[in-house]
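Sequence, please.
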């Protein structure tokens, strides 16, 4: 087994544990991504990024044949946005512009900091934690936010997870996305 780390922190931990690592460029394919999530709805759509690696996590998940999410029962929500926070990664050059546009759209962006120092993602970008209400159409919101120049990506992972394993009081429940049959011409 070899692994593709989704953050520098994960890479450091994997090296300490002796897990062989490869870059995404060197991985001929990625069979499975195992990850957590901050919110999961019944459609298996997710909000991720409270840990700050949302873009790398999304890239590795998209490169994988299967995305399996591991969460506690408290992460399962009726509708995404229930916790009121959506991470958005932005290019530093566009931070002011993005902050104004996000605020104008009603998302009240707060620059993620450690003390007074802005948090910088492993990609060299900034993260805004935006206030959201429950999200009725995550696909549409993802498109609207991504259309803002300078937004690199959001913590919305729509239609990506195949399976969610939910830990609840010593038991695991499996949530699965129905397989979509492939139609050949």
């Amino acid at each position: 087994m070899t692994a593709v780390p989704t953050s520098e922190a994960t890479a450091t931990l994997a090296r300490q544990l002796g897990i062989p690592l490869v870059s995404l460029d060197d991985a001929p394919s990625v069979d499975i991504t195992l990850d957590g999530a901050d919110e999961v709805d019944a459609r298996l759509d997710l909000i991720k990024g409270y840990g700050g690696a949302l873009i790398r996590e999304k890239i590795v998940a998209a490169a994988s044949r299967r995305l399996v999410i591991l969460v506690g029962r408290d992460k399962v929500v009726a509708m995404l946005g229930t916790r009121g926070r959506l991470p958005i990664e932005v290019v530093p050059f566009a931070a002011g512009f993005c902050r104004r546009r996000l605020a104008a759209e009603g998302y009240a962006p707060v620059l993620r900091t450690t003390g007074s120092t802005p948090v910088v993602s492993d990609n060299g970008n900034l993260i805004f934690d935006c206030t959201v209400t429950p999200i009725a159409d995550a696909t549409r919101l993802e498109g609207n936010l991504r259309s803002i120049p300078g937004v690199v990506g959001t913590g919305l992972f729509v239609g990506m997870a195949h399976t969610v394993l939910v830990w609840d009081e010593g038991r695991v429940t499996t949530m699965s996305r129905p397989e979509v049959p492939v139609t050949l011409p």
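The longest helix spans residues 54-63.
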